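Write out this protein's structure.
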Amino acid sequence: MRVLLTGGGGVGSLALYNQWFCIEPRHEVHLCDSNATARPCWVAREHWHEAPPALVNGLTNPEYIAAMKALAWRMDLVIPGIDEELRPLAARMPEKLLLPDFDTVATHLDKLASMRFLKTHGIDVPATARLRPRLDDRSAYWPPFPCVVKPREGRGSRHVAIVGSESEGLAHVTLSREPAGDFITQEVLVGREYTVGVLADKQKQLKAVIPVRVDQKRGITTRAQVDDDPAVHALGEQIHAAAPFAGYINVQCIKEADGRVRPFEINPRISTTTCLAVAAGLDLIGGYLGGEALPHGLKPLTLRRSYQTEFL
């Protein structure tokens, strides 16, 4: 198949390109990115495409949609990997996307709406609330300190902090230079962190749940291993059963000392650890199209991620 991965300069997309096209060729893989300088030397020029930014001043960029439609016409499947493009793509060209439907995408991009949605479906989530519309508004809800303060929408741990007091939380928001009303507070969960890939086919049938234990994180996961913990696996099944979707989502959760597994965030797209799931045996594309998602079972692999330096 001819497959297009967006966010082409990102570590997750490059890892999938390497796996599917370089190491064990299975597909004709193409990459696109808005950054013209993001292409590593080892990526073939004919497989690299530039696209305008998805958003301009917070609004969908018509030039981006036109460029993506032109690229998609040449592909069999488009796999988005950047949050900013998920809503525009899901709304305007859903037919070739390995991506949940627009409502699922919109719900889980909004971290407050996501936690509320899961809670209404009986899933145990950490206390989560909007911070406040203005810094001088004294009506804000604060969970017991320490607590997490983070943007209601965002990725890569940007502007995320654990704060020990209200004044520390307000200082963090002020230094971020983002509107206070765009932040939420969340109960701190203590335990082992997992990132869980959940794959469903085009008919919304659950195909695979891949729990990955996170051992080290620096914005992106740099050390992790496949760990098919039954309780974590069950959470992935429960989230899909609550509102079945097609495509792939990434559930971030904590397994606490008492055995509870609670999600604190859902990314409705592939993640930087999807490559580990693929290396461990997940047929992401075949499973999405209705085939067997784990034809050879799940291998207990470990991810060790480093960085590459190039001199041009």
